[in-house]
Amino acid sequence: MGRIQRHLLFILFLLFSSGLLWGAPLYQGVMSVDGTPLYMAVYGKDEAKPAMVCLSFGPGSSSRYLEESLPPLFEGTLRLVFIDYYYSGQSLPSQRPLIYDRRPIEGITPSDQADLILSLMTTLGIEKFGILGHDFGAFVGTRLIQKAPERILFFAGVSPRLNYPDELARLTQKLDETYDTIKNENSVNGLKAMEQQNRISRLRSRRIHSPEDIETLFSLLGNFPDLSFYQPVEKKTKKTLEKLLKTGAFLPVYPVKEMLPYLYSSSYYTSDETILLRESSCPLLLLYGESDFWLPPSEGAIQNGLSYETIPRSSFFPMLENPRAFKAALLDFLRLHHIIGR
To answer: 252: closest CA among 61, 69, 64, 91?
Structure first.
């Protein structure tokens, strides 16, 4: 009887303490980096393995969905570093209000975030590292390449929005088409659609958008959930995200008022970063979900030094929607460029 009890206790230990045996972070918490609070977590003790900094979509988002999904995929292959951008997720300063309406906030531009990440990696003693940047994370990743190219082992952009002027042009076109179908209704909605379409027409005439223009676009986008940039491929993924991304400060889909600090402080919405990537000497990979209608896939293509791969049965969140294919695509890329062994 005693032996059976010992076996049961051991099984219960495995069930409830599995995080202690595998998948648990080496370090996790909020650090002060250059006087700024920054949440980070490190997975993987083997310093001989290449490190990969994992940057979430956003701005304003938590890295929690990456921290929950990536360690099981790359355990034993890579060291993983997860970071919440300053003023996002768990990196919110306690002494300052969350929202600054129509005023810039110091320290949250992509360039500022890159400086903090470089300081953090130096503090951790990690001189060289790769980048996995999801959406806005890819944009911050290009700033890292620009600032410290000698430290970057590779760059992998997931659902990367690196040319936001073109993205916004497509958005205004889709909104215009949507209002065009509504305006013919003999109703109040039809009249409102005509008014909004006039606003869209004025925006479409501009190549460079001001923060106020982008604020208008995001407000209009909120009326049509089907046009969301962050469209998951199925309801199951959406529920998972809603559970993982809630941090008490930000929700998975951000209202315009929560985006304002970034809208008024960032070059994110006016820059084409693909030019910078083409000038980089490190291995480059862009990963797309085949169902992401905002980012047309180019499976297996190599254009201007950029490798493109499409993840089947996925949209904006391929690491959650098709983790097996996502893992295979990234590891094949790293083996091809001798970042990891075969």
So the answer is: 61
DSSP β-ladder status, 306-311 and 284-289: parallel
Q: What is the pLDDT of residues 235-277, one digit of tens each?
A: 888 888 777 766 544 444 567 777 788 888 877 888 888 777 8
| Residues counted in the chain | 342
Question: Hey, where are the domains in the chain?
Answer: 23-161+262-336, 165-228
Task: Say if residues 99 and 89 touch (Cβ distance below 8 Å).
Answer: no
Residue 273 CB contacts under 8 Å (≥ 6 apart), including other chains:
138, 139, 142, 162, 163
Give the H/E segment covering residue 68. helix 64-69
229 pLDDT band (50/70/90 cuts)?
confident
Q: Is 38 exposed, middle or buried (0-12, 13-18, 19+ CB in 10 A)?
A: buried
Tokens standing for residue 220: 């209009």
Do 10 and 18 touch, CB atoms closer than 8 A?
A: no
- Residue 86, CA distances (Å) to 67, 117, 243 in order: 17, 10, 22
Closest of 133, 64, 107 to residue 261, by C-alpha:
107
Task: Quote the CATH superfamily of domain 23-161+262-336.
Answer: Alpha/Beta hydrolase fold, catalytic domain (3.40.50.1820)
7-30 average pLDDT score: 57
Among 245, 211, 203, which Cα is nearest to 105's? 211
